[in-house]
Design goal:
About 45% of the residues lie in helices and about 15% in strands. It has about 850 residues and is an alpha/beta fold. Among the domains are: about 160 residues, Glycosidases (TIM Barrel, Alpha-Beta Barrel), CATH 3.20.20.80; about 190 residues, Maltooligosyl trehalose synthase, domain 2, CATH 3.30.1590; about 140 residues, no CATH class; about 80 residues, Sandwich (Immunoglobulin-like). The longest helix is centred in the C-terminal third of the chain and has 31 residues.
């Protein structure tokens, strides 16, 4: 990680290309950033706004400017002494028709595809109708209705055939066009076409997968397709005969159905995916198919360009997306570490509670969600938890047992959008128990029930057991805890069976089926946690939504100063990013710091929401939306105020659908959705309400900014690599994506830097409303170039307001002091003081000078709510 001091994350897309990123480099260099941190930029699906939907690992994204523009970005970075960290996606690929040549080949050739082993497809799934076929759930209605309605169309392109359905296309297996070509041969009396028909029909079957047969099929099918294309191009009559047969098939639903029955895929109603999908995907997104990156050939093909960029020096670090989706993260990271000669690697990993990264992983650390939640918690007052819970329960009537809410949501997810994953686990478990006589009489229903309960009880995203090795103490503890929790909740379960499944999950039973179940279970617990908790519970449990953050624990009400110090002083994983906002966060850092203030004023907050709730009863439609959403909406408006109607409506739609209570993406309720929209619009058109919200928020703006500034200083001076999300160097009141991907005004930021260069802190304070104080802190502190590995020593404050201080020493030459819980502090430090180490100290933010020994906080934080002192 040598040289990586601070990263700046940008979201690349057609509206912000390599050249646009290059244009920001002079500004970022002035800011003090060492590395541009880029969203994925290998070739993605057309129109991608994020890059996580890669379709071709061998090319740079053409919509970003391709290789030429990328070269200009590299040159700009090099000219300013900077480099890049790149976000890569090893877990999955997008499958938008023929843009993904590998997937197109799989659909055309089934198990005999050269790329069949690249994707995590179950060619022998529990659903027997899908044996040797891939489910393609893209139809808007039942297959038979779509077919008979003429919405499926067979087409010829040269010597190839495909079926089109609106924007979707799927290839026709060459072996299956023999009958069509035979009929065309009779129509035009062509022996050559008849010969081609016979040759197509004699291609090796897709179920014959030995290397020689696969090579023969691929060689001969291309020769035959080229011959057919040439014949059609050279003879109008012959082409017309073939096209007439295509038309005849399209005119006859039975004929088209018979042709589709011979394919290596099964077109289906989109709703079948949750129950029957036969390939692993990213969470519940059917258009993102899982890769078998654990296989060396797949790794080599998918990482060739990335490793070349690292070898060339264009990229100096990698962020690994969704490492928990991989079959064997340890093996993958070892291979990547070796292939990149030990370059800087961080993983997107959500740690729960006191969970830590596996010590043997060859990485620098995480992408920063753990830090984000720890530092955010410093600005939540744990002493008011009970009062905040009472306010929430009284207004909404919602349950507040967080564990129960999580369990219910996970169960819902496993019965709906991830049911197919549970079915596959159940089939594996049935194979396993058949080999163990003590458990073989358990039915599939019993096994499915036991697996659901075990997975729902998991307190972490996944374990990292490797069959053939002894499970770590951490993994054993997590699995044992899950069994205990499951049996406590469901004493009717067979305890012996639960412990057997736990032993399989811990790799304690040998055998291929046992190992497969162990590995597969680890790949399922993660999406169940993500979809059940992060994407469902975080929109249901709305007590204080600033805690409902990626990697957060909403039932953990705040972080104590002692806990924060303990984690920072640890010598582990000091190469981790220190993030406070990301492309995935539910709300920006500045929204969170403002909302955190509510934890210090539950009575005033409770009175306000009760008053607002009464004001808005007249805007309900048949009682909708419910009180829980209204409570979330009021927090959202306070946190992001002023919030335009269009952004508020977009957020409300996403929040209600993610909550999956009255409406969802899978089962939308048009009536409820309309009621939500009309409610939000009516509330924001209510002048009495908007005036009152504005007045309420006005009292939070300055303490919220003080908290934001304190959080920024902590991030920039804590051990690790500081990470800034695009635009957040100024105040940023963004909500969940796509709201947090709005364009950033870099001209404004550059002009503000010019003003700060001329006028210093006075200029920053004069432009505080524009975020100049935050920008000032970022530039000054990045300019310190603190070594991420410097020792961290807590410094305790003394006095009646000591709980409002976080202070520590970095190395021996820098002291950091920030204030917190600003509502309770109310600007009155009384006689609270901090003892500085011996020597003379200068505040790099205000230029104030202080001698070692006792110094009052009123003096230290005279002009700003933060101070960073450097030894003179």
């Amino acid at each position: 990680m040598e040289g990586i001091r601070a990263t700046y994350r940008v979201q690349l897309h057609a509206g912000f290309t390599f050249d646009d990123a290059a244009a920001t480099v002079p500004y970022l260099a002035r800011l003090g950033v060492s590395h541009l941190y880029c969203s994925p930029y290998l070739q993605a699906a057309k129109g991608s706004t994020h890059g996580y939907d890669v379709v071709d690992h061998s090319r740079l994204n053409e919509e970003l400017g391709g290789e030429a523009a990328f070269g200009r970005l590299v040159e700009a970075l090099s000219a300013h002494g900077m480099s890049q960290v790149l976000d890569i996606v090893p877990n999955h690929m997008a499958i938008p028709g023929r843009d993904n040549a590998w997937w197109w080949d799989v659909l055309e050739n089934g198990p005999a595809s050269r790329y069949a082993s690249f994707f995590d497809i179950d060619w022998d799934p529990p659903e027997r109708k899908l044996v040797a076929q891939v489910l393609v759930p893209v139809l808007g209605d039942q297959y038979g209705r779509v077919l008979e309605d003429g919405q499926l169309e067979l087409r010829r392109e040269g010597g190839s055939f495909l079926v089109a359905y609106h924007e979707h296309e799927v290839p026709i297996s060459p072996r299956s066009v023999d009958d069509l070509l035979s009929a065309a041969a009779e129509r035009c009396e062509s022996d050559e076409v008849a010969s081609l028909a016979t040759a197509f029909g004699r291609l090796p079957h897709a179920l014959i997968t030995d290397r020689a047969s696969v090579d023969e099929r691929h060689r001969d099918k291309e020769i035959l397709k080229n011959r057919l294309a040439d014949l059609c191009a050279s003879s109008v009559d012959l082409a017309s005969a073939v096209d007439e047969e295509v038309k005849a098939v399209n005119d006859d639903p039975d004929a088209l159905h018979n042709l589709l029955e011979r394919q290596n895929y099964r077109l289906a109603y989109w709703r079948t995916a949750g129950q029957e999908l036969d390939y692993r995907r990213f969470f519940d997104i059917t258009t993102l198919v899982g890769l078998r990156t654990e296989d060396e050939p797949v790794f080599r093909e998918t990482h060739a360009l990335v490793t070349a960029l690292v070898a060339d020096g264009a990229v100096e670090g990698l962020r690994i997306d969704h490492v928990d989706g991989l079959r064997d993260p340890y093996e993958y990271l070892e291979r990547l570490h070796s292939a990149t000669s030990g370059t800087y690697l961080v993983v997107e990993k959500i740690l729960e509670g006191d969970e830590t990264l596996p010590e043997r992983w060859s990485i620098a650390g995480t992408s920063g969600y753990d830090y984000l939640n720890e530092v955010n918690g410093l600005f939540v007052d744990p002493q008011r938890e009970a009062a905040m819970t009472e306010v929430y329960a009284r207004f909404t009537g919602e349950p507040t047992d967080y564990a129960d809410i999580c369990w219910n949501a996970k169960q819902q997810i496993m019965r709906t959008v991830l049911a197919a994953d549970i079915h596959r686990l159940t089939a594996l478990a049935a194979d396993v128990v058949e080999r163990h006589r003590r458990y073989r009489d358990h039915t599939r229903a019993e096994l499915r029930d036991a697996l659901r309960e075990l997975i729902a009880a998991f307190g972490v995203y996944r374990t990292y057991v490797r069959p053939g090795e002894e499970a770590s103490a951490e993994d054993v503890a997590q699995v044992d805890a899950a069994v205990t929790t499951a049996l406590a909740r469901r004493p009717d379960l067979d305890a012996d069976l639960m412990r057997f499944l736990a032993d399989v999950a811990l790799g304690r039973h040998d055998g291929p089926a046992e190992s497969e179940l162990c590995l597969r279970m680890q790949q399922v617990t993660s999406p169940v946690m993500a979809k059940g908790v992060e994407d469902t519970v975080f929109y249901r449990f709305n007590r204080l939504v600033s805690l409902n953050e990626v990697g957060g624990e909403p039932d953990h009400f705040g972080t104590s100063v002692e806990e924060y110090h303990r984690r920072r002083a640890s010598a582990s994983w000091r190469g981790s990013l220190r993030a406070t906002s990301t492309h995935d966060t539910k709300r920006s850092e500045d929204v969170r710091t403002r909302l955190n203030l509510l934890s210090e004023m539950p009575d005033r907050w409770g009175a306000a929401v009760e008053r607002w709730g009464a004001m808005h009863e007249r805007h309900l439609v048949d009682g909708a939306p419910d009180l829980n959403f209204r409570y979330l909406l009021y927090q959202t408006l306070v946190g992001a105020w002023p919030l335009p109607v269009d952004r508020a409506v977009a957020y409300a739609e996403k929040a209600t659908k993610e909550a999956k209570v009255h409406t969802s993406w899978v089962d939308p309720s048009p009536a409820y959705d309309a009621a939500v929209r009309s409610f939000v619009e009516a509330v924001l058109a209510d002048e009495d309400f908007t005036t009152e919200v504005g007045a309420f928020v006005s009292e939070l703006v300055e303490p919220g900014r003080a908290s934001s500034l304190a959080q920024t200083v902590l991030k920039l001076t804590a051990p690790g690599v500081a990470d800034i999300y695009q635009g957040t160097e100024l105040w940023d009141l963004s909500l969940v994506d796509p709201d947090n991907r709005r364009p950033v005004d870099y001209r404004l930021r550059s002009e503000l830097l010019d003003e700060l260069d001329r006028g210093g802190l006075d200029a920053a304070l004069a432009r505080a409303d524009d975020g100049a104080t935050k920008l000032w802190a970022v530039q000054r502190l990045l300019g310190l170039r603190l070594d991420p590995l410097l020792p961290y020593t807590p410094l305790p404050a003394q006095g009646p307001k000591a709980r409002h201080v976080v202070a520590y020493l970095r190395g021996s030459d820098h002291v950091v002091v920030v204030s917190r819980l600003h509502i309770g502090l109310a600007g009155d430090w009384q006689d609270t003081a901090l003892t500085l180490p011996e020597g003379q100290w200068v505040d790099v933010l205000s230029d104030a000078s202080h001698a070692g020994g006792g110094v009052g906080l009123r003096t230290l934080l005279d002009r700003l709510p933060v101070a960073v002192l450097r030894k003179a």
